[in-house]
Design brief:
- With 200 residues, the chain is mainly alpha-helical.
- It has 2 domains: 50 residues, Arc Repressor Mutant, subunit A; 142 residues, Tetracycline Repressor, domain 2.
- It has 10 helices and no strands.
- It is elongated and about 65 Å long.
């Protein structure tokens, strides 16, 4: 195994260990020593790859969001119309829960830390701004293609993002409370009932 491969493997072990620790103990309750113990690396090995615990935390956030961004772009590119794309994106809520499983509590930690850590706040709020712009552009495209009624795209985008975030939070806090993937899909159907341009 080359030094680059060994370095990549060590980095992955640190990230996986940190995600498990943050999910179980919270950000404040997790120390670098605990991450190192779980990842089976020395502190020197840890600091070779990451300057701080916060850097690991932000890397986890950025990796999760990058995967989500890729999925959203792929769904939009593959959809024949904007309503179809929005429905398929609503179906991604189920995939988020199935893929993340017991690791979802770490995303509550991102929100908690954003309240009192400026760097985490900036890293957390920027994606919300990006997603609002993404869905605003989708709504504008839907209006242009004639599948959506002319509405305020900014308000529509805020509605979609707020609904998605609310569903994910409910699913984390009350996982047995509903089939949250189904709720997301049915909610989008209801929203599109009011947004779609009806044939006369």
């Amino acid at each position: 195994m080359s030094p680059q491969q060994r370095g990549g493997e060590t980095r992955s072990r640190i990230l996986q260990a940190a995600m498990e620790c943050f999910a179980q103990r919270g950000y404040d309750g997790t120390g670098v020593a605990e991450i190192c113990r779980r990842a089976e690396v020395t502190k020197g090995g840890f600091y070779h790859h990451f300057p701080s615990k916060q850097a690991v935390f932000l890397e986890l956030l950025n990796r999760w969001l990058a995967g989500l961004d890729t999925q959203l772009e792929a769904v939009r590119a593959g959809a024949e119309s904007i309503p179809e794309g929005l429905l398929r994106m609503a179906g991604m809520v189920r995939q988020v829960f199935e893929a993340a499983g017991g690791q979802l509590p770490i995303f509550l930690e991102f929100l908690a830390q954003a309240g009192h850590d400026p760097a985490v706040w900036r890293a957390t709020i920027e994606p919300y701004q990006r997603y609002r712009a993404f869905f605003r552009d989708m709504i504008e495209a839907g209006i242009a293609e004639g599948t959506l009624r002319p509405i305020d795209p900014e308000i529509g985008a805020n509605l979609i993002v707020s609904s998605a975030v609310g569903l994910v939070l409910q699913g984390m806090l009350d996982p047995q409370g509903a089939d949250w993937g189904q709720v997301a899909e049915e909610s989008m159907h209801m929203l599109l009932e009011s947004l779609e341009r009806k044939e006369k």
